[in-house]
Amino acid sequence: MAVPKQKKSKAKVRARRGKISIQSPRTTICPKCNSPKIPHTVCKVCGTYKGREVIDLEKRKKRKERKLKAEQKETEEE
Fold this sequence. Notes:
Blueprint: H1 10-18, E1 28-29, E2 36-37, E3 48-49, E4 52-53, H2 57-77
Antiparallel strand pairs: 1-2, 3-4
């Protein structure tokens, strides 16, 4: 089994790890609504992907509102 001959110094380790950093995600502009979005994903603002509507945002919004109302009723009953 291979074993290092000498201990790596703190400077060597930190220099190597310094190159590994968190990068902000790349963004592109949605062709329909001109809002920034991550490439190869559905636009969160208008719900389109490659020029087609993939997610019906109005339907999703209504569903979310109904869910919130139901949760509020449950908390009021308790």
